[in-house]
Amino acid sequence: MIINEFKDPDKIVYADINEFADNFGNECGISDLRGKIEAFKANPVKEGVTVSGTKRTTLKLLIPNMVFDEKIEMGDSVWVYMGELYEIYCLYWPQE
Question: Which domain holds residue 16?
């Protein structure tokens, strides 16, 4: 995981939490993904949190500005990282 991945506009997907969490959780086999994201948002840790699904999927919830020394655009939000071969999801809460 390198910071340049989080700065590549071709790799980043900005996703509304209301549209993302339930659909993505179902696709990955992660029950209550929204609850896990909300819990991490409320109490983030520098190293992030790994979440595993039943469909052989593992993802990492992280806040890039806590992980990397360099700050990035929307780096204070929760991001979903699944590895260098996949898109990275930057989550936002539209009501905030």
Answer: 3-92
DSSP the chain: --GGGGG-TTTEEEEEHHHHHHHHHHHHT-TTHHHHHHHHHHS--TT-EEEE-SSS-EEEEE-HHHHSSS--TTTTS-EEE--TTS-EEEEE-TT-
The structural domain count of the chain equals 1
What percent of the chain is modeled with pLDDT above 90? 85
**Cβ atoms 96, 20 nearer than 8 A:** no
Give the pTM. Answer: 0.93
